[in-house]
């Protein structure tokens, strides 16, 4: 990885940019990292957090050598939206047992995209629950296997028992434009919610 | 107190951080941007090798999560090292844009939308 230490695109002497983040959630293997990679201006980066350092109580540090082998991985990407504003996309850890990580991740997020694989929609139920309970705005993006979408949006909405008003989009996580449109749909939802009622 | 034994167990995983486990972490979220102070303070103690690596990586503004990924260290460890550097005046930290559900920032949202539209 020679030469990979060029971390930021902002020229030297420029002030630090403002930063915001969006979460890309959904079940294990649903295409979260693929989506992050499709729209990110950098190859997705990965951070790994040993479970023993990731928020467990001191009492839980017994038998630490064993537990250190377990890490929670998070992939993320970046989009410079303007000279002074950078958007980060964080793929949430897919396995349910790592959910304590989600609280930290969700803190300060603009909103979330919940990716759904229609062949096993139940794998994304937990993510939908999480954002609903915490009042974090989200959109559903159905990631078509090989880009194909055998089911209409209404069927997906019903299968997921979605509340009224949650947008459902069909997407291909491998396609940049498709992922960009999903993110724009999320921002549009946030703007619509923020705009004063007329 | 009788706490000697449990304290010993705690120290090992934090060898890099001198045993500290509770820095002022609130200063450093995943998307807090850190930048090396230029010039570096003359009075500050000599930085350790890991500190020096961080300073090199944040010569230009960089987010905490990116630093951790590029250093191949857990975020929790990087944050502790960043606390040292902040205390020594060797870096500045810019917190992320505050997000509140009650008073959303329309200008910010529009800016993000415009930026995505240019992708």
TrEMBL record, chain A:
Keywords in alphabetical order: GTP-binding, Hydrolase, Nucleotide-binding
KW S-adenosyl-L-methionine (keyword) present: no
Pfam family for this entry, one: ATP_bind_1
InterPro entries assigned: Gliding_Motility_GTPase (IPR052705), Gpn (IPR004130), P-loop_NTPase (IPR027417)
This protein's record includes keyword Protein biosynthesis: no
An example Gene Ontology molecular-function term: hydrolase activity
Homology family: Belongs to the GPN-loop GTPase family.
Protein name: ATP-binding protein
Biological source species: Streptomyces griseomycini
UniProtKB/TrEMBL annotation, chain B:
Cited InterPro entries: DUF742 (IPR007995), WH-like_DNA-bd_sf (IPR036388)
Gene3D superfamilies: Winged helix-like DNA-binding domain superfamily/Winged helix DNA-binding domain
Positions of region (Disordered): 1-22
Family matches, as Pfam families: DUF742
Superkingdom, taxonomy of origin: Bacteria
Name listed for the protein in its UniProt record: Rossmann fold nucleotide-binding protein DprA/Smf involved in DNA uptake
